[in-house]
Specification:
The structure is a single chain. By secondary structure, the chain is α+β, with helices and mostly antiparallel strands. Helices cover 26% and strands 37% of the residues. The protein has one helix spanning 17-38, and strands at residues 2-4, 9-13, 41-47, 52-62, 66-70. A five-stranded mixed β-sheet has the order 1-2-4-3-5. A hairpin with a 4-residue loop joins strand 1 and strand 2 (9-13). It is globular, with a radius of gyration of 15 Å. The N and C termini lie far apart (43 Å).
Length: 84
């Protein structure tokens, strides 16, 4: 499922790999169409979890480029207690 938050931010949520890939490709193409009109910014694809991504036009990405990053939630197993 693709949820449009604005012309510059789209959220992709899916639970299987094929749907994630198809929806991400569609969202990137939608963002690319808007980015080309502006001719100033690139596209940032961010993974927020195993089933949730955002695709955004970003001033931090050079025009004509698409960058990917991960912002996965911290694992509860990764936390350590002080003194351990």
């Amino acid at each position: 499922m693709i949820k449009r938050h604005s012309d510059v931010v789209l959220e992709v949520t899916a639970h299987d790999a094929d749907t994630i890939e198809n929806d991400l490709n569609t969202a990137v193409e939608i963002a690319r169409e808007h980015a080309v009109k502006e001719s100033r910014h690139g596209i940032l694809v961010t993974q927020h979890g195993f089933t949730r991504y955002t695709v955004a036009i970003s001033r931090d990405v050079p025009f004509g480029q698409t960058l990917e990053r991960r912002e996965l939630p911290a694992s509860p197993l990764a936390k350590t207690e002080p003194g351990s």
